[in-house]
Amino acid sequence: MGRLTRTLVHLSTFAGLAVLLVGCSREPKGTTAGIETTSTATPTGSDSETSTGNPTGATTSTATSEPTPTTTMKDDIGGIGGQCNLFAQDCPPDQKCTAWNEDGGPFPNGTRCVPVDLNPALPGEDCLVPGKFGDGIDNCDKGSICLDLENTGKATCVAYCTGTMDAPVCPHAEDRCAFLFEPTVPVCFSKCDPLLQDCSPGETCVPNEAALGAPHFVCMPRVFPQLGKYGDSCYALSGCDPGNLCIFGENLPSCKTPYCCSVWCDLDSPDSCKEFDETLSCVPWFEPGAATPGYENVGICGIML
C-alpha cells in the first residue's frame, strides 16, 4: 500500500496546483507546492445537497457602474476574504455579494457588494461582463456570477452555493457545490459521472474540489480548448477534453511540463490505461472505503511511483 499511498500524494499535489486558473481545494489536503507530504486527500460530505429551485425566464442587460463598498469586513467570509459573505449574500437589497480581484487581476481574490443589474440574468442564462472577469461586475442576478473564465466578455450565470463551507447547498437537487480559485469561491454545477462524461456539449466532468478524493464530480465549462488529449499540457482543472483530467506531470511518462492531461479509468478495467502507455496503472480516486456511493470504480491513469 506504500507505493499507492505515495502515488495518491503526488496526484493530490497536482490537484491542488493544476487548477491555478480555474479552481483550488477549499482546504489544505496535506500537500504543498513542490513538497511531498505523508498524507492523502480525504473526501468529505455526502451526495445529498438539495434545496428549492430557482425561477427562470428573465432577460439580460449589461451592468455599468462600479460600486462603493457598503459592508464592513467580516471574520466569517464564506471561504473568501473581503467585504461580504458569498454564502449569506449579506449586501443591501439592491446589491449582491460577488467575487472580484481587489488588485486588478483577472481572477477573484476577494469579495465586495456591487449593484444588481436592473434586468438581471438568472442562473443558467447567458450573461455579459462589461470589463474583465476579475472586476466582479456582470448582469447576473443576486446570488450568481457570470463565470467568464476566459475573459471573453460573455458566459453563463452560475449560482453561488448557500449554506456554509462545511454544509454547502445548491438550488437544484442534481447540483453540487464546487470550490474554485484561491481563496475559495463556492459555485453550483450539475453533478456528473467522470466515467460516463454525461455533461452537455462544451462541458467536461471534473472533481468539485481540486484534490484527489474530492467527493463529487461536476460539469464545468471546458476552457483552453486548443489542447486537451492524453499527454497534452494543461493549465486548469477543466482544461482537458471530456474523459481526461489535468494531473501532476510526473505521474505521466510522456509529460514534459508541470501538468498534463490523463485519462479517467474504470477500476474494473485497469488495463485500459495500457492503451496509452505500458507503465500506467488505474489509480483509485478514493481511498479504500471512502468512495462516494456510485463512484466506487472511478480511477485515473498514472504511474505508480
UniProtKB/TrEMBL annotation:
Top-level taxon of origin: Bacteria
PROSITE patterns tied to this protein: PROKAR_LIPOPROTEIN
Chain positions covered by the region annotation Disordered: 30-75
Comp. bias regions, Low complexity: 30-72
Name of the protein in its database record: Lipoprotein
Organism: Nannocystis pusilla
